């Protein structure tokens, strides 16, 4: 495994985490809005 592969995999992990937290946050917002309305 080269350094380039390590860099691309860390970018992929960062992108996955970003998508996951965005989805999680968005779901929480929708849930709260539906719960209080």
Share of β-strand residues: under 5%
Helix content: over 70%
Termini, distance in Å?
52 Å
C-alpha Rg (nearest Å): 16 Å
Structural class: mainly alpha
The dominant shape is: rod-shaped
What is the number of strand segments? 0
Q: Could you list the spans in which at least 5 consecutive residues all have pLDDT below 50?
A: none
Number of helices: 1
Could you state the order of secondary-structure elements as H and E? H
Largest sheet properties: none
User: pLDDT average, as an integer?
Assistant: 90
Transmembrane segments: 12-31
Keywords: Membrane, Transmembrane, Transmembrane helix
Task: Fill in the keyword field for this structure.
mainly alpha, single chain, membrane, 37 residues, transmembrane helix, 1 helix, transmembrane
Fold topology:
Elements: H1 3-36
Structure in words:
Keywords: Membrane, Transmembrane, Transmembrane helix. The protein is mainly α and 37 residues long. The chain is built from one helix and no strands. The longest helix has 34 residues. The model has no long low-confidence stretch (mean pLDDT 90).
Write a short abstract of this structure.
With 37 residues, the protein is an all-alpha fold.
